[in-house]
Amino acid sequence: MVSTQSESAAPAAHQAPYARVKQALKDGLAAGQWPAGALMPSEAELVAQFGVSRMTVNRALRELQAEGLVRREQGVGTFAAQLHRVASTLTIRDLHEEIEARGHQHHAVVQLQRSEKAPPALAEQLGLAPGAQVFHTLIVHHENGVPLQLEDRYVNPACSPGYLAADFSRTTPTQVLFDTTALWRAQYAIEAEPATADEARLLGIAVGTACLVVTRRTFSRDATITLARLVHPGQRYLLQGEFQP
Question: Are residues 173 and 219 in the same domain?
Answer without folding.
Answer: yes
